[in-house]
Write a sequence for this structure.
C-alpha cells in the first residue's frame, strides 16, 4: 500500500475513522532526520497491508501538528 498524504480535510476519514491501525508520520521537507526516516516509512507502507501509513507535512498542516502537540519532527503517532 502507498503512504497517504493527510490534510485537515481528510484526517478524520483516513485516520480517526479508519477500520485498521494507522501510523501517522509528522514530517517536513527541510527536516534531515525526516528524510533519513522516509525509506523506512515507505518500506513499512509497502510491506504491511494491515497497517495504514499516513504522512502529515507540518509546514502545510500546522493546525494538525498543533492539535496533536507535535513539538519536534519527525514524530510518529499510532492510532487504533
Amino acid at each position: 500500500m502507498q503512504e497517504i498524504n493527510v490534510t485537515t480535510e481528510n484526517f478524520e476519514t483516513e485516520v480517526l475513522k479508519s477500520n485498521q491501525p494507522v501510523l501517522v508520520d509528522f514530517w517536513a521537507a527541510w527536516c534531515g532526520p525526516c528524510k533519513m526516516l522516509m525509506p523506512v516509512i515507505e518500506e513499512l507502507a509497502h510491506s504491511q497491508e494491515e497497517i495504514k501509513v499516513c504522512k502529515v507535512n507540518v509546514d502545510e498542516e500546522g493546525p494538525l501538528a498543533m492539535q496533536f502537540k507535535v513539538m519536534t519532527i519527525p514524530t510518529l503517532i499510532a492510532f487504533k
